[in-house]
Amino acid sequence: MEKLVLYHDTSHTEKVKHPSPVLLTIHVSGKLAVFRCGDEHWKIIPEMPAPFDDVCVFKGRPIAVDNIGRTVSVGPDLSLDLVAEAVFGGDIKFLVESDGELLLVDKYLSCFCGDRFLEDDDNVPHDGSDEFYHEIGMERAVRFDVYRLHEEEKKWVEVTDLGDRVLFLGEDCAFSASASDLRVGNGNCVVFRDDAFRNHCSTEVGMSVFHLDQCGISPLSVFPSYSKLFWPPPEWAGMVHN
């Protein structure tokens, strides 16, 4: 399982007052799988034009997006209804609800192979020395495109400015928040898990920031207000282990 979301089945009149909880996830095969209360096994939905990348619940509906951006909703009978046509381009798709809208974040990766000089890559901080390092098949995020769902036309519309919103992308979750609420200054960016900088600098926390207006990626440490959101950890995190 790559990600798990919970929604409630209210398809039948008798279930409206007592909706049945349903789990939706992405099976290792790339297909969607559901588990209803009372089931003994997961049910795999066979339809899969392309492997699915992400799932979420939007306005009470279970939504899934595949690797080419085709977005569907899962019906009570496990049928897949089209929500939006495909968006070709990136390598990994994320679904994020932001201020009442559903966004699609398209992550572009680039694979770095072989021996390289550290100073040859402008996106990796270095001290100016000719430090030599070896990378074998390491994938790194190089760009993000963001789209907003147009429900009536069933298509994704590109977004170039998120305003005050900040999108957070993890391996098993994605969410958004207001920059002013977080007290981090400007929004219009994507904060995401990124091991590229941590592999070359032990002080990095393995996260980076992509600003839509600059179309560039920087380690989280460049933005102290964002870094404080993750390190040091809040007091309640330490209390969990005590």
UniProtKB/TrEMBL annotation:
It comes from the Eukaryota. This is F-box protein SKIP23 isoform X1. The gene is LOC101511131.
